[in-house]
Amino acid sequence: MGKLGLLLFATLGLGNFAQAQDNRDDEIFGDSTKPAIPAAEDKNAKVEESSFERQSKALMDTLQIGGRLEIRSFSSQKEQQRFQEGGFVPSKTADLYFDTRPTEELRVFLRTRLTETQSFVANAQGETKPTNVFNQQIDELWFKWDLDRAVFLTYGKQKVKWGSGTLWNPTDFTASETRDPFDLFDRRLGRDMLKIHIPNEKLGFNYYAILQFDDAARSDDIGLALRGEFSFLGMGELALSAQTRRGAAQKLGLDVSSALGPIDVKVEVAGTKRQDRTFYRDGLLESDRVVPPTPYKQEDRLFKQILSGVQYAVKYSDDDSIYFGGEYFYNELGYEKRLEEIFSLLLGQSQSLYAGQRYAGGYIRLPNPGNWNKTSFFLTGLSNLSDETSSARLTGTWSVANYANFEAFVSRCMGAFGELCFNVPQSLKDLGASAGLEPELQKILGTLPTERTILTAGVGLSINF
To answer: Which of 38, 110, 386, 398 has the fewest CB within 10 Å, making it most exposed?
Structure first.
């Protein structure tokens, strides 16, 4: 803890340290821009040194260190295979954070992630053997301060979530990845940005402006996202959002969430134009021939994405409730035909859970039922109505020794040759060359499975500290 703390303090105080170091250099070697001062009369070095010490002490007094440690493993079963013959994949994750507030106006936060996962590498003889892969990433690193308690600024790598949806979030314009709706812990990393927040507490309004620096190779690649949140009738919230960026789609969003009696209702509507991505159409896959989809552009079209959802809580005792939720997602950026959908996914033009045109999903959450105050259950199901594939997952969590959390899950997919129950027909792999597929796509197809992974089960142990 001591070395890590000193390292953090030295980093945060780098500017003051550099200034103090310059003063020391001037004292020793002389400053050509100023007349020489006798050492007895030069008190700046001591002043700067005490200032640095005071700032370091303030950082140390307010520093909090914590994190999350997790060990997970899962195994999967393919078609025509016994479960014990399936692959076994362990992983270890350590999220460590340093949080300090040296003054009331300034807060500094660092969260770093260490992961070790297992992958399989083929040797010279063609045999695959497991090997451990270690990775270190910065999850979050940001400075937060305010201007007269009226404007709040957060600069650095940070996490921002827009939208009220649980399974899908079409108005989450600041995210570059989709969250895994089956996972209880959001594993996405933060993004580089400057967030400006102006709250109006009297009206219950919030205004946000975000400069997005991620993936910016030059200054005019910086993106701009705006959002306004407005409470109404004391029971709901309406949000308007927009995003623009050079070489990327322009986006507008509307997000409404409210309570209608015992039911929570949410609606997200996103419109996007100037899509530079490639779309596909007129593909055909039969047992004896393959017609690759034709790529095309639609930069002038306005694409709509609409999410509607409800959540209902049933209180079955004084302290316990069970939650039921459901969502429907209509996505004009997706496809109705599975061959075109798969092409778009494989070539990186579509994101997972946003490749189909119609989706539906639901969930049941049962936290700490009855006297089982250390146990919770979660059931989530998703269906891609366009390619007729579905997946469901049941997760249970148990508190171990009052500190650690044990998690066990089992999931199963239904359907074939689609996004949520994925495999590639052998006919597509066999006929790829004769159908004139690009060599890059043929190479990708050669590595994809022809059998579905129908069952996956895993366990995990984690602790927050």
So the answer is: 38
| The two structure tokens encoding residue 225 | 């996202």
In whole angstroms, what separates CA 122 from the centre of its chain? Answer: 31
Are residues 224 and 244 in contact, defined by beta-carbon separation less than 8 angstroms? yes
CA–CA separation, 137 and 134 (whole Å): 10
CB-CB contact of 56 with 12 (8 Å): no
Tell me how far CA of residue 426 lies from CA of 45, 74, 388, 433, 464, in angstroms.
Answer: 75, 27, 19, 13, 46
Distances from the Cα of 446 to the Cαs of 29, 293, 441, in angstroms? 67, 18, 9
Residue that has been written with the tokens 């930069």 in this structure: 299
Other C-beta atoms lying within 10 Å of the C-beta of residue 102: 21
Tokens of 376: 């919770």
Measured between alpha carbons, how far is 408 from 396 in angstroms, rounded to an integer? 5
Partner residues linked to 19 by β-bridges = none
Torsion angle of the four alpha carbons 208, 97, 99, 222, in this order, in degrees rounded to the nearest 10: -30
Look up residue 35 and give its amino acid. Answer: P
Q: Could you give the C-alpha distances from 321 to 393, 396, 407, 415, in angstroms and in order?
A: 21, 16, 21, 33
Per-residue pLDDT of 303-323, as tens digits, reads: 999 999 999 999 999 889 999
Q: What is d(CA 290, CA 264) in angstroms, rounded to the nearest whole number?
A: 47
Specify the DSSP class assigned to residue 277: S
Distance between CA atoms of residues 415 and 312, nearest Å: 29
**Residues with Cβ within 8 Å of residue 306, at least 6 apart in sequence:** 170, 267, 268, 269, 270, 329, 330
- Residue 14 above 50 pLDDT? no
**pLDDT tens readout for residues 120-145:** 776 666 667 778 899 999 999 999 99
Residues 6 or more apart whose Cβ sits within 8 Å of residue 348: none
How many whole angstroms separate alpha carbon 88 and alpha carbon 75? 5
End-to-end CA distance of the chain: 14
* 215 contacts 202 by C-beta, under 8 angstroms: no
DSSP calls for 100-158: EEEETTEEEEEEEEEEEEEEEEE-TTS-EEEEEEEEEEEEEEEEEEEETTTEEEEEEEE
Contact 359, 380 (CB under 8 A): no
